[in-house]
Amino acid sequence: MNAERFFPLLFAMLLLPVAGLGQGFAGLGTDAGEGFAVPDPQTRFSFPDDHGPHPDYRIEWWYLTANLQDEAGRDYGIQWTLFRSALAPGEAEAWSSPQVWMGHAGLTTPEAHFVGERLARGGIGQAGVVADPFAAWIDDWSFEGATPANASLGASGDGFAYALELSSDAPFVPQGEDGYSVKSAEGQASYYYSQPFYTAEGTLTVGDQQIAVTGTAWLDREWSSQPLSDNQTGWDWFSLSLEDGHRVMAFRLRQTDGTAYHSGTWITPEGTPQPLAPDALRFTPLATTRVERSGATLPTRWRIEIPQHALDITVDALQPQSWMETLFPYWEGPIAITGSHTGRGYLEMTGYDEDTQ
Amino acid sequence: MLVAKSVEKSFQTSNGPLPVLRGVDLSLKSGETLALTGESGSGKSTFLHLAAGLDTIDAGTITISGTDVGTLSDAGRAELRRSRLGLVFQQFNLIPSLSVADNLAFQARLAGRLDPAWQVEITERLGLADLGARWPEQLSGGQQQRVAVGRTLAARPDLILADEPTGNLDEATGDQVLDLMLSLVAQSGAALLMVTHSDRLAARLDRRVHLRLGQLA
Amino acid sequence: MTALVFRTLLSHWRRRPFQIVTLLLGLTVATALWSAVQAVNAEARASYAAAASRLGGDQLDSFTVQGANSFDQSAYIALRRAGWEVSPMVEGRIRRADTTLRIIGFDPLTAPPQMGTGATLDADELGGFFGPGGVAFAEPDLIARLDGVDLPELRAVDGTPPRTLLMDIGAAQRLLDLDGQLTRLVSVPTATGPDPSDVTGLAFTRTPPEQGNDINALTDSFHLNLTAFGVLSFVVGLFIVYSAIGLAFEQRKPMLRTLRACGVPLARLLWVMLAELAALALIAGLAGVALGYFVAAALLPDVAATLDGLYGANVDGTLAFRPGWWAAGLAISMLGALIAAADTLWRTVHLPLLAPAQPNAWLGAQRRAMRWQIMAASLFIALAILGAALANSLIAGFALIAALMLGAALALPTLLSFALRVGAARARGPVSQWVWADGRLQLSRLSLALMALLVALSANIGVGTMVSSFRETFTGWLDQRLASEIYLTARDEAQADAILTYVAPRTTAQLPIFSTDLRWQGQQVELFGVADHATYRDNWPLIAQGPAPWDQLRARTGVLVNEQLALREGISPGDRLSLPTPSGLWALEVAAIYSDYGNPRGQLMVNVAGLTERFPDVDRLRYALRLPPGQAPDLIADLTERFDLGPQQIIDQQAIKSLSLSIFERTFTVTAALNVLTLGVAALALFTAMLTLQLMRLPAVAPLWAMGLTRAQLARIEMGRTVLLALLTGVLAIPVGLALAWVLMTIINVQAFGWRLPIFLYPLDWLRLVLLALVAAALAAALPALRLARTPPGALLRVFADER
């Protein structure tokens, strides 16, 4: 899923503070290289340790999205993400640490979309993750609690802030084959588990207005060292919280030849995952939006079909201008689901900024 | 060629205006030579300066080939001097930093009328052929005045105005220079107005008029 | 026609090559000195601007902890975690390869975008940049100089400030031995968050962007001084040009008349003369700018050293090529030529076509010129006197100097003429009568060169008096100020305690000197805490005091203020002031004012116990040690060995004194160099004037030769008269120079540095200078006199033959 976006993001990030953007993506391909660990299909998750960081892997994230409503039933969405990127495997003292952290926060309303971004070095305490008791933070943004299943979430940025309490009784759901998530036909893969069953409650701040909200949230945890295939140009990733209690994770990785690699997981209300084969999913863009901030044109209304589960839905962006104006920009925002099933979810799209120059 | 009518000129002095010319009438035809004689202070040089446009007239008119000198601007008078007139002074007024040859060709070049054949002829006739590479300060007075005459004639002026051209030379040298000048003037067809205090020299020109106290006698 | 006229005008120079050489030389020298000063100033200003803008210093707020040079980086983490978007920096100096290097460590990830470094690293290299080895950015020249020195891997980045290494904060901490410590934080001006003192328990102060203002304000006076010298040299150079052009005009007058008589219109003639002037100015301008480049390159290292020593301003010691500077040099050459030729052009316009034969007209002309000059001189001197009473800014001070110098220069011909008239009245024999009388005739031609000499001599006396007085005051002051035998800076407080305990038996006193920077009345001031001890009571150089300054200090109710701060803020003893401290305002009474030469900053002194009470975080590392005489060297050797102290950590009094004096001397190196150059130009002006004058002197001396004086006698007389004129000028330069010194020391220095200095007189220096002027005049007159002595009789005869 959102593995792929981190690489270009990281790349931009590494260059920017010291200079302008330079070279392209070359060299950050499929090879893990330089002593980084590689995911192994046989390994199983071990909690709470796996809630914490895995510094031997090149990249890792703690990725939260929430679909929220106020008392009047208006829809909102928030995103909270902490990325870890290793310049070299392992840890080192203080400023010598090769670990680099990046935070993204978003808040979407029907009228607007707010974005915040933070960067930090590892080793000095400005950002990090501790498994037990769980804490993930960068600057004054945090995601903390006894375990990730019962935690407080907070972030702020230019013109917005949010503070939410998250809780879930459901188990963490391994994606892919028992947590081994394949990302291409060539076999790139990552470790990937989710907590898609949070209930969320808290307060959004938009400008100087405080809004009490409730809703659902979804956590993705993923780490890897070699997630991107050379011929993959971008992706469209969906997390769907259906009103009947099912959860669906689905993505398509677009390839240079115009075809795409599909994958997903059907999750029962009890939290049992059923991997979806590449040909079990169909994605059809129905309408596009031109993003004002970047000029990129991308689909903000989709038809998604999973015939084996009789799912045929249309998803619509709550705010078609949900553009993440970060070092490496992308689109991420809440969606509404209609059709054979109803519900809410999140959509992320990358790789659209280049084809609309 | 030159027609002067009721020309008046006075100079400001500490004792009030001093009239120098008090109504002078004079005319000169093409190809004619005229001597203007008079005592020191009679105003003869002043008349010449007015005719050359070197000074401005108070009253009356001087016309040269139909052009009223008094109505010309400073640039117009410069143009008149450059294209129609030739001036020869008692001090030879050569350009000390130019060679003799360059001095000889100077005014003809300035007037845009350089005629190499005529230049050569004048140089030879004036006996300056061997002196072309010298500097003015290396010449005797007679040689310098011959260069000045040659410079004027080389430009083929319509009218030559000469102010005591031999005044700085001894008698023999002066006569020699005057001979050359008159014969070349005759050859070129120019008119000549020469100011001199010497009756002997004046007698050699076609005509003479005498100024006394600012009026023609 | 234009080409012909142009060629004819130029033909004059071919016949008089010396004149054109003089003219070009004068204009070249004037342009060169002017451009050199401009180049030095431009280079320095560019360095300040680059230093301010590099790393965003002109756009970012700074956060520092009052009373502490550094603080623990946990405070940074605490602020980040409280929502402050600040970025950490660690800065310091190390010494490597005989160079003091400024180390700047920053964090590329949190650095605001305004903090551009100009450097590029790609993703692969970032690991190395963060890693234990580190990568440092520096300008290419510095890298070449640091070849083989033990430092992080160096990467050339053009535009990095001079003598500066930019690197990752972790590498900088290791290099500066400041593990886990930061010296300041930066943020964009809009950054907000909870009160930093509440978050961290440290007394953070936030300082707005500097925009290079501090260093500009500090160094402005220095650059103004340089500019004043540049203008002076330029003006003196123009004297040469003026006399050369004037002479050429006189000699070309007959040619101009002939050209006009032959029918060249006046306007055309003027345009051609202007074109000729422009061509000459272009040649001289190019040569002048090129020469100026070398002069500037020669001066720059001293200027850079001065600015570093005096203001801590970093200026690159090498000169950059600036196209704008070339253009400005050519423009100033044109302008100078035009100013010098204005008079000649004006006279060409009014040149009567008919030459008047008035051999004695010079007398009337000279009288008219002198009447005009003395009126202008009176006006300027009146302005100068008025200015002396009113001048209250640096610009006004320099305007006053300009008025004084102009007034004196313009009055010079009249004064000299008066002296010559007095001499003539007393002369007995006919020859001596002629000598005096002819001197007056000569004066109208020589007066400009003599004016240049007067200006140069009085500038020399004025500046020399100031520098010598300053040196005398400064040396005495150093003795008072540096009364302690050894000055010690410990690495940390534990080391300080250990050293103090160890040396206790061998010292007679251990005096703490703790200090902190304060933002007070909108400026950065240093607050020093000192002990109550005879060392201060007996020696400290107070220049104004209340009844019992040291008792007030001991009682922690009094504060001492340095002279420059007192002058700037209008503070006198007895005034009350309040200082910001971490625990609120501290009300104090001004107990005394003390002199503090060589320090551009404002400084305050309080009792050390009072300081540590109000600023508990202050570093307690510096001490002055008093010991019995003669024991300092042994103790320093012992301590250096035992405690592994660096040369900066333990310094004896003698070393500081010699360092201070060397900084002082360097400060005036450039002044002295420009002074010598100005005097040289003035001598050149006199020489060229004499040489050209000699060419016109033949008609004046020929009759005397005819009447029976030998050429050798005439030559001696000519030379003697020039030396006499130089002597008179030199004597007149002394009072003018002293007036200048007075203005420099009581107006310029006070405005520029905030120091008032006593004036000392150095008659021997004046004597030396006047003798120098006489030698210069004798040399200037020697060659023309020699030529006169060797003039062939024929040339003298010709005067009678064709002089009109």
From TrEMBL, chain A:
Ranges for domain AttH come to 59-225
Record-linked SUPFAM superfamilies: AttH-like
Write down the Gene3D superfamilies for this protein, in alphabetical order: AttH-like domain
InterPro entries linked to this entry? AttH-like_dom_sf, AttH_dom
| A matching Pfam family | CrtC
The protein depicted here goes by the name AttH domain-containing protein
Q: Which organism is it from?
A: Pontivivens insulae
Automatic annotation (TrEMBL), chain B:
Q: Per the database record, which ranges form the ABC transporter domain?
A: 2-217
Which Gene3D superfamilies is this protein grouped with?
P-loop containing nucleotide triphosphate hydrolases (3.40.50.300)
SMART domains in the record: AAA (SM00382)
What InterPro entries does the database record attribute to this sequence?
A: AAA+_ATPase, ABC_transporter-like_ATP-bd, ABC_transporter-like_CS, ABC_transpr_LolD-like, MacB-like_ATP-bd, P-loop_NTPase
MF-aspect GO terms:
ATP binding; ATP hydrolysis activity; transmembrane transporter activity
One Gene Ontology term, aspect cellular component:
plasma membrane
| Annotated keywords | ATP-binding, Nucleotide-binding, Transport
Q: What is this protein called?
A: Putative ABC transporter ATP-binding protein
Automatic annotation (TrEMBL), chain C:
Where the record annotates domain ABC3 transporter permease C-terminal, the positions are: 228-350, 675-793
Q: Which regions span the lipid bilayer?
A: 226-249, 269-300, 325-346, 372-391, 397-422, 443-463, 672-693, 723-748, 768-789
Q: Which UniProt keywords apply?
A: Cell membrane, Membrane, Transmembrane, Transmembrane helix
Q: How does it sit in the membrane?
A: Multi-pass membrane protein
Q: Which Pfam families match?
A: FtsX
An example Gene Ontology cellular component term from the record? Answer: plasma membrane
Q: Where in the cell is it found?
A: Cell membrane
Q: What is this protein called?
A: ABC3 transporter permease C-terminal domain-containing protein
